[in-house]
Amino acid sequence: MLYTKSIEKITYQDILDFCNERYRESIHLDYKVKIDSSLAKNIAAMANTWGGLILIGVDEVDSKPKLPVEGLEYREHLREQINNLILGNIMPPIFPEIQVCQSEEGNRALIVVRVFQSDLTPHAIRGNTRVYIRTDTSNEPEELASVDRILWLIEKRRKSVELKNDFYERADKRFSILCRKGGISVEHMDAFFGMSPLYPFEILADYRKLAKEIVERIKSDGWSSTFPMNLYNSRFEPTQNGVYSFFLKESKDYFSYEEVNHYGFFYHREEMYFRQEINGVLIQNSLLSDILIRLDLFLESMSKFYNVLGYWGILELRVHLGKLSEVVFRDLPPPRGYMRFDEIKASPVDNMLEFSKTISYAELKNNRKELVVDWTAPHELES
User: Fold this and answer.
1) Which of the 8 DSSP states describes residue 335?
2) Which terminus of the chain has a lower count of CB atoms within 10 Å, N or C?
3) In 64-138, which ranges are continuous DSSP H helix?
């Protein structure tokens, strides 16, 4: 798909195939017959909103591609022409991905401009005097931003970060309340995976569809488990902005909590250790491989989640492992001085491990394995 395929691998035929699907212009998609001064407005508006695709060389009728797609005459320096338009008209400048695709005959071209949601907003044009945003109105896909919206764009980072942190704090609080009601306390290792748009500010889905439709559509199956974990274990109940589910085994030795909201926030937390008695000694142990498998499933599910929501902007991934000091990882070499697993009385690890990373949707979709490997690299540790 053009939204996520590596930009250098997109071909002329890929764009023709995309246009043959007759996708309608939207907040994320724009068709242009040629390169002209209005391109700067298109790019700035997308960067100020959610990002998106601009396909150049494609005429449109009723906001859909006019078939057959003719492209534009190929000539050298088309990429440079677009970059010069950006540098000469947008402040601060934006650097989208650009791919100029030649036809097999070499005389025609189609151009993909992939714009990412920006964290340097607002981006203005016309001598730094006009700020545009994308809309879902096909007749007027760009509109001048209101004063309130401009102020919001200026303070977007602070306000959006506050909103996102509030999601996490509320999820933590709900989880704690449910644990108390269930008569359990988290004494040993629990794992948390979270993901959200980097700067959430707009509702992406009808919250009424979250539990009945969206959660089901993002299911990912692994060789030993399914994600979301609570899809079949427990009902999702309504809460502010979304739904949550809390599963607790009757033995009270395992829990799983999940929360999803219509801003594109997903929170997963579960106990990831088990008790094993060896030679009369009770060992609290876990497997690093289990954590990596769960993280891989989580990322696969999140790729589906944002595709369903129609969000292809910047994301933030958070991973947290807490209360590790009494847990032994059985698939890691034993600490120095220990020869066998059954001799280990405690694990010499730090008590908490945290990891956060900003990624694009394209990275989430195409580089999931690299993200899992990256998590195993050095990261912030707290004892």
Assistant:
1) P
2) C
3) 78-89
